[in-house]
Specification:
Blueprint: H1 4-17, H2 21-26, E1 28-36, E2 39-42, H3 44-53, E3 56-66, E4 69-79, E5 86-99, E6 102-109, H4 112-119, E7 126-127
Parallel strand pairs: 1-6
Antiparallel strand pairs: 1-2, 3-4, 3-7, 4-5, 5-6
Length: about 130
């Protein structure tokens, strides 16, 4: 059986990829901390605005889990808002930290090694993706 944290993170990906921003925001803590290459900020309104403008699809790959932390290797595709055509793609990783069943922190990293190191996880924490 998959841990509830992993199920929540999978649902988060589904919501993002289906452009269901309301469901995505419902899965997030109201004061969610979002971090990545452009810095860090907080709040569900920021998440809502990002999801509405990012034109990104994140396909989960390998998943690592321990306690309240889930690391996901992702295939990211960005699309043109005008044409819907994929304009860029890359493999990256995100660290999700959950609190009371909601995503409280979400940090994006350029690669899985950095994400695992930051989350203090390793290969032994890999979980089945089904």
């Amino acid at each position: 059986m998959t841990a509830s944290e992993v199920r929540i993170v999978k649902t988060w990906h589904e919501s993002l990829n289906e452009a269901d921003v309301d469901r995505l925001v419902a899965l997030a803590h109201p004061n969610i901390e979002l971090g990545g290459p452009r810095g860090t900020d907080r709040g569900s309104q920021l998440l809502r605005e990002w999801a509405a403008r990012a034109n990104i699809r994140l396909t989960p790959g390998r998943i690592f889990h321990r306690a309240d932390t889930v690391v996901v290797e992702q295939e990211a595709e960005w699309s043109s808002p005008e044409t819907g055509q994929v304009t860029d793609s890359q493999t990256l990783a995100s660290v999700f930290v959950l609190h009371e069943g909601r995503v409280a922190r979400l940090w994006r990293y350029d690669d899985l090694v950095e994400a695992l190191r930051t989350a203090n996880l390793n290969e032994s924490h890999e979980t089945r993706a089904d």
